[in-house]
Amino acid sequence: MANNLQFTFEAIWKVLLASLILGAGLPLIFALGVRSLAWGSSVEAGPRANPAGTVIGWILFAVVLAGILLGITFIVASGLGKQLSFEHIFPTIADKH
Description:
It is built from three helices and two strands; from the N terminus they run H-H-H-E-E. By secondary structure, the chain is mainly alpha-helical. It has one domain. A two-stranded antiparallel sheet has the order 1-2. Strand 1 and strand 2 form a beta hairpin. The longest helix has about 40 residues, at about 1-40.
C-alpha cells in the first residue's frame, strides 16, 4: 500500500513539473521575447533603439520554437511505438527497449 502511494506521489510530481514547464514556462519565455523585442525597438527605448533587446527576443523565440518542436517529436515518436532518446547531443527517435 505504501509503495503504491509512493508511485502515485512520484507521478503527481512529474505531471506538476511538466505542466509548470510547458503550461507556464513556454508562454512566459514567449512573453519575455515580445518584451525584449519592444525594448529593442525605438518605440519602447525612446530615441535610441537597443539592439541587444532584439537579439535576446529572437533567442527567446528560438527556445520556444525548440520546445514546441521537441513536443511534436515526442508525440510522433510515441505514435510510432518508439521513444525519444537524449543519449547524444541532440534528441533522436529510437526503438523502445
